[in-house]
From TrEMBL:
Gene3D superfamilies the record matches: MFS general substrate transporter like domains (1.20.1250.20)
Domain Major facilitator superfamily (MFS) profile: residue ranges: 31-420
Residue numbers spanned by region Disordered: 1-24
Organism encoding this protein: Streptomyces flavochromogenes
Protein name: MFS transporter
InterPro entries registered for this protein in UniProt: MFS, MFS_dom, MFS_trans_sf, Tet-R_TetA/multi-R_MdtG-like
Pfam family for this entry, one: MFS_1
Membrane topology: Multi-pass membrane protein
């Protein structure tokens, strides 16, 4: 599909321009660019930690792979938590998104080169921390494009375009990761190149005009500002719901390769890496269906909370399937049902979140604060998952705990008042 260049989002004086959030529709061509930008991001997020990083850690220390993977994932997620709201605040202050998208995307390539060249757990941790840092600079600015440029009436469609990046990117990530499972160093470079090329494409086509820059604040005021969004009732509950569901999701998703190796009874001749390459496209198809339908239906009926709660509950049901059966069929069913639930959740919850932001002028900063609900649980999830697996001697308890977290996350959207 040819991508047309969108118009400006704001005028030089700060008045809404064509295609801004104040106009009747998003800028032409912006939705496919959002899809491409998020697809590249999720391809790296899924393919690197889900396959290449897990294989690299297993090669370095096979006996301690679970504990080491949890340690590397948890520490690197701290960097994600810190860099996302900081980068969001900096892009708010600069009045620009594109330079931050471009810088984060281009830096992904040398960082992936570094990650593939190290041979100890310590150096892997440092390199992946850098990877999380540059990717969250990219993500913070990209995430803010929707509240900046898309009107309220089209947030569901825009969020669906963003949400589609997860299943499409997951499929690309799984296929590329599996293709380079015997040569993860080259695989890292491929993922870095995908993100860098997409960042160039997005910033070249999605031209923007500078928004009104914000005056710098003292450090203490900046720290207080980061937490100010959480004093808003609706934003706080949206934050809690997202954090709980993401915690349950990543406690399982982060260990998928090891689950297939140590929990699932795979058919003869099917390797765990090949199993990932089968599960991800299946999961992606389910996500595409539920993301598109969820985004469209939530716009059609103007009911965000209903769809968010129902999809989170469906994700909980999916987690019970591999808890009661270790068969390959159970994993296939889990992947499909989980895709239906999580795809709809991410599409509609993203729309819901953009509707409960306390202040439009702080959109990037507050979306960065909300991303703590994405990155923060990823800090805890690897430690929790490795502890649960070690204490229980398997993965069944992990599935059950993740299901409970998803149910509580579904209930957390009920107190939100400003969105139906």
């Amino acid at each position: 599909m040819a991508l047309s260049s969108p118009g400006p989002t704001t005028s030089d004086t700060g008045d809404p321009g064509p295609g801004s959030a104040a106009s009747g529709r998003p800028t032409r061509g912006l939705l496919p660019l959002l899809l491409a930008g998020n697809t590249a991001m999720y391809a790296l997020y899924i393919g690197v930690p889900g396959l290449l990083l897990a294989l690299q850690i297993e090669e370095i220390d096979p006996a301690g792979k679970v504990a080491n993977f949890g340690l590397v994932s948890g520490i690197s997620a701290i960097f994600a938590t810190v860099f996302n709201p900081v980068a969001g605040a900096l892009s708010d202050r600069s009045g620009r998104r594109n330079p931050w998208i471009l810088a984060g995307g281009l830096l992904a390539l040398p960082v992936m080169l570094l990650l593939g060249s190290v041979h100890t757990i310590l150096l892997v941790t440092i390199a992946w921390c850098l990877g999380q840092a540059v990717m969250n600079i990219y993500q913070a600015a990209l995430t803010s494009v929707v509240p900046d440029r898309v009107p309220m009436a089209a947030r569901g469609r825009a969020s669906a375009a963003v949400g589609l990046g997860l299943p499409v990117g997951s499929t690309i990530g799984a296929l590329v990761g599996a293709a380079f499972s015997e040569d993860y160093r080259t695989g890292y470079l491929v993922f870095g190149a995908i993100v860098a090329a997409t960042a160039v494409l997005f910033t070249a086509c999605a031209r923007e005009r500078r928004m009104p820059a914000k005056a710098p604040l003292p450090v203490r005021a900046q720290l207080a500002a980061f937490g100010s969004a959480l004093t808003d009732h609706d934003f706080r509950w949206a934050f809690i719901g997202r954090a709980l569901l993401v915690l349950g999701y990543f406690a399982v998703a982060g260990f998928q390769l090891y689950i297939l190796k140590d929990h699932t009874e795979l058919p003869a001749g099917l390797s765990p890496e090949e199993a990932v390459a089968i599960l991800m496209p299946l999961n992606a198809i389910a996500m595409v269906v539920s993301t598109v339908l969820g985004g469209w239906l939530s716009d059609r009926f103007d009911r965000r909370k209903l769809f968010v709660g129902a999809s989170a509950a469906l994700a909980a049901v999916a987690l019970l399937i591999p808890a009661v059966s270790t068969s390959w069929t159970a994993m296939l069913a889990f992947s499909a049902v989980n895709g239906l639930g999580f795809g709809c959740y991410m599409a509609v919850d993203t729309a819901l979140v953009t509707m409960v932001l306390p202040k439009a002028e702080d959109a990037a900063r507050d979306m960065g604060v909300l991303n703590v609900a994405n990155a923060g649980p990823q800090i805890v999830a690897p430690f929790v998952a490795s502890l649960v697996v070690s204490l229980s001697g398997g993965y069944t308890a992990l599935f059950l705990i993740a299901a409970v977290l998803s149910v509580v996350g579904a209930l957390a959207v009920r107190p939100i008042r400003s969105v139906r």
